[in-house]
Amino acid sequence: MLSVTTAIRFARRSISPSVNSIRWYTKPRRFARVERGSNPTSLTHHDLELFEGYLENTNFGSLKSTEAQSDNRIVSGFRYTGRRLSELVSSTLRNLSDATDSDPAEDTVARQRLTEKEWVLLSKVKLYLKTSNDRSLYDILRRNRVSIPTLVDNLSRFHVSLIIKRLTDYQMEIMKRFIAEQQFSSRLRKDSDIVGLAQMKDKTYNGVRTSILKISQHAHLNTLDYETIVTFCMRNLRFRDAIDVISDLETRIREGDTSLSLTNSLWGDKIGILSRSNEQTWTIDRYDLKSNRAQLIPEGYVYPVGETDILQLLGQYRESGLILDQKMCKTIVLALGKSKNLSKLDSFIQGVWGVDTNSGELVEGFTMPSKDSMVYPNFDLLRCIELAYSFNSQLLKPLLICNTIVQKYGLTSQRSQKYWATVLECTALQCENVYRDTQTELWRKGDESDLSEVDLRRKIFDHLWQHIMTIITKPSKAMIKLRLSHGSLESLLEDLPQIRERSIDPKINITSSEAAYNENILFSYLNTCRIGLMKKREFYQAEHMITQFSINNRMKDVLLKKLSNYQQRYLKRMNQERVRARQQIRDDDDDDGMFGFW
């Protein structure tokens, strides 16, 4: 069971945060505060030129050709098919069903020592465990928390584990709906549905956490229970709650409980929290990569059980004798990258996947892991590699490594949108950092040079986007947002005919949601191009673009209204400047006349 100290800390954080503090989607990039100790970049303009040369001389189309090759290499690791599979599933479910049945003798004894109210409550809990009604199970435990110790004493360990699993699954299902709703919500208006769902998400998290805490104080939890609770906390970005549960588990192990142990999942969560390498906490120099509001551990946090140094933690994991799996690989890559230990990161990648990080080629004679291996790479792992090196101001190196892995291991491009979105974002932010640093240095020296001719940000992003579009057929929503934020105006204008054609093609817009999605993309493109043309004072070109590419009157009227409002503000500002200039001339003439008189 959880210790009293952990229980107190766990309960003190039961106050629900405000709705506005819960943001699962990425917020606009903002400057990091000085006191945050942001990670300074070491990239130079010369590095950007080298990266641009690599993009110009590299054909990314070869990455897509591996898709056909990989289809022939698929090795099924599933041992059971057909009738054998059906029998296996049936027998497994039968065993689980039998485990939920109560022993009549035990029921008689329990009936004698329980009150009528407690017996009815126990019967209802057992009934809900046999059904799929997770909400009823959550509600009855929430309303009867005082009776949880009595319930635990009269339930088997299997029932206790099942209750914990069902409660956490219920809350995480609400969280999935919350994330899905946020993808379609607008920040420009207050959506009552999303606000209510956010409040329900927080309320159920605190309710489930309180019920689990009450259960853990009166029951002996097993390793799987701890793993379920930690995963529940991690999915809700409550890292402090998760590390408290892990520390309590390790305390029980050190006290001699041989039935408990740290699994790969628990090791991964522990290392990720203590090394502060969870993806939601990353920044690349002055910009936040992910701005999710997470419950972080404080700066001066001291882990009560064991060390917090990344190398010592990895040494302890190696001594545990566990077999490396994909989650641990991603955790180790992120932790080594966050600790800036690039030499260890290079050797780890070369030892597991056989890629020479200096040349970007596969080591000669290396035996690649089989497709059913637990360390076989995928695009989620490549995202971690990209993040780890980008955090250390490496622009070309991660792309070389990942391209080699994609080619040699035959990874398909069907689910690579998230990886390529990470590549685009990391590249754009690093180029932005170099440009900002150059601007700052010139400003300090009093130099007002125009950097537009040597600014490679847009050019590099456009090259990278063109290469990626030869690999994937449809960019994700995150990729399009990055394209609009970092792409050049010229390239966006070139894309407009294709975007408009896609928004009116009946073969593509089969459903109403697909049609609305493509219409919103076209509107975003037109609005971004309108802003770019207005900044260049090309108002006639902006009006012509809106009239030519709008697909309905509503879209055209909104954009033309925005353009007209900006023109009015611009003319008003120019008129004020002319008035001030004339007034300054009059004042100068008056001063000259006064001096002549005297």
TrEMBL record:
Domain of life, source organism: Eukaryota
Keywords carried by this UniProt record: Mitochondrion, Transit peptide
Pfam families on file: ATP13
Any one annotated GO CC term: mitochondrion
Subcellular locations according to the entry: Mitochondrion
Residues spanning the membrane: none
Family affiliation: Belongs to the AEP2 family.
Complex formation: Binds to the 5'UTR of the OLI1 mRNA.
Name listed for the protein in its UniProt record: ATPase expression protein 2, mitochondrial
Species of the source: Brettanomyces naardenensis (Yeast)
